[in-house]
Design goal:
This protein is an alpha/beta fold. The chain folds into three domains: 3-120, no CATH class; 132-340, no CATH class; 373-527 and 574-640, Glycoside hydrolase/deacetylase (TIM Barrel), CATH 3.20.20. It contains 27 helices and twelve strands. It has helices spanning 3-33, 39-66, 83-89, 92-101, 110-117, 124-154, 162-174, 208-211, 214-229, 232-245, 250-274, 279-296, 309-313, 317-326, 337-355, 395-408, 419-422, 430-441, 461-480, 500-512, 526-538, 542-571, 585-589, 591-600, 608-611, 631-638, 651-660, and strands spanning 157-159, 182-186, 193-195, 201-205, 305-306, 373-382, 414-417, 445-448, 488-489, 516-517, 577-581, 603-605. The strands form three sheets. A five-stranded mixed beta sheet has the order 1-2-4-3-5, with helices on both faces. Strands 6, 7, 8, 11 and 12 form a five-stranded parallel beta sheet that branches. Strand 9 (488-489), helix 20 and strand 10 form a beta-alpha-beta unit. The longest helix has 31 residues, at 3-33.
Amino acid sequence: MNYLFIENLGWALLHSIWQIGAAALFLFAALRLFTKSTANVRYAVSVFVLGAAFILPLGTFTWLANSKTGARPAAQISEAGTVAQKERAFPRDEKLRIGNENEGAAELTTYRAILESADLSSKMPWLVAIWLLGVAGFTLRLFGGVWQLHKYKTRQVFSAGKDWQETFTGLCDKLRISQPVRLLKSKLVETPIVIGWLKPVILIPASVFFQIDAKELETIIAHELIHIRRRDYLVNFAQSLVEILFFYHPCVWWISAQIRREREFVCDDIVTRTLENDRVVYARALANLEELRLLTNGQVPLIAMAALASGAANGGNLMLRIQRILQKNTEIKRNPSAWSALLGFAFISALLIGVFSVNQVPFVNAQKSARDKKIAIGFVGIPPVDRSSDPPKDADSTARLMIAKLTQHKVPAIGFVNGSMISDGEKLFPVRANIVRMWRDAGLEVGIGNFKHVWFYDTPYDDYVAGVEKTQQITEKLLAEKNLTVRYFSYPYLNTGKSTEDKLKFEAWLKVRGLRSVPYTIDNQEWMYSYAYDVARMDNDISTMNEIRVEFIKYMDQMFGHFEAYSREMFGRDIAQTMVLTPSRLVADSADDLFSTIEKRGYTFVSMDEALKDEAYSTPENFVGKSGISWFERWTMAQGKRLRDEPGVSTQVQKIWDEKKPGKSK
């Protein structure tokens, strides 16, 4: 790949910014002009504009490649001497004449003059390299979608049954589908999709056959068959390729969104014209299917043709589709995202000019300024425990330091009391009970665990309940001094028992007592780091303590990334997180670094009340057993999905734990 080729490609990419922006502006005006036209007309116009958005940059590159001088301005080309010599040899008018004869290579628009003033030619390799990286990334994304569809098509699928096969054959005849199409049930997909080009398959979630009316499901299947008859998958695939090539341009994504939007409208119109079903049946089918999709958080690769792909991908389209079907309002209101795309076009143009007017390419971390994520922290338990000594060492000083750091960083944490640590069941231990009072008086919430930090799995139900009740009575005596009550319970070791019956029964008991258990989304092995830190602190090994603190912060940052991936995969967003920690000396000594790391990831510290308002916490889970795991893992298992590989504990900490863990013989 020679330099001239790279330079021509770079100029074509830069010119694509205004060319695609102009195409999007044309489409915006055309859609407003054709507001009352059929969806098919608007769809055709949108496809035409996307084609133009692809052809214009391609034509620019071809023109530059075929010109004698490529993309370089005439002032940069020397056949007989330096640029300075050319300036002296020719008057201005003569230079322009010669440039025009050279197939227009010196023809400068105001736009290009601005770009050339920044000496962009020398920076074209950077621009092309960044573009190639983006293309590679989006290509891998496309292949990932294709592979996911292949898995959907070949795994956990089975026949829809004789009755539905007969209904399906009748629909194919009515809709004049000539090519062979199969209808299958699937246990993997969570929304109907069409897969395949030559031998397409319609996959319907197995549960849908039982959750919506048969007539409603017929309309959904008909919608998918119409996509096949129209060969929409070809246009959809072409869209994906254009999106890969021009991934950097917001107007391309907006144009593509309009195509998908109008395509759904076209298929909706054909369904209502072809089938005898009442329009209300079809509208109800879409609404019910979307409700089921939301309940399961179903997601489909963009390359797939799904019955609700447009409505799911562009908020608000579903209601508009239903309105059109019911003929309540056939006027198509333009989506304000058009303005967003055009503003994005203006922004990206200004950004590129600014970026390439300097010598280095800046990289921007968008999350640094984002503070839209929330997290609540629960400490299990108070008073603090020093795992290297019994009785605990410096529990009072550790608690005071922890409370000071929480106050400094404005972390409204909740601490859970282990009853046996502050009382023998009859009388309070003054020093340790006072730690709970300090926590309370600092404005931090106080919750409870069990009387002893025991596994529910290993404890008879009645004994477990008795331990929680005893801890509640002890703790409420301390809270009553300030007219406060206990509201939250934390399962020791996050273990919720050995049977669903015990778990549900205990949750009902908590509710009667005015308590709510905390579902932690961010679990971690901080306790192992804290144990190693306590051992080093007992030995006054400052060097090891510092090393453990560094490794701890690194580990916690990795754990946040791990559970954030669960959040985005499962809910398509960053939900309000809940994290469990121990009030150890390690956490207290590392608080500045830990809380700063969390804030840099975009989090705001909130109360447990606020975090649990997130609708994600209504997601069902049914885990019971010996383990104690995070609620993300519980939700994943309940949905029959594979758990993600968790970051491991550092080798140093693991070694200390293996060699010096409690109960290990000397």
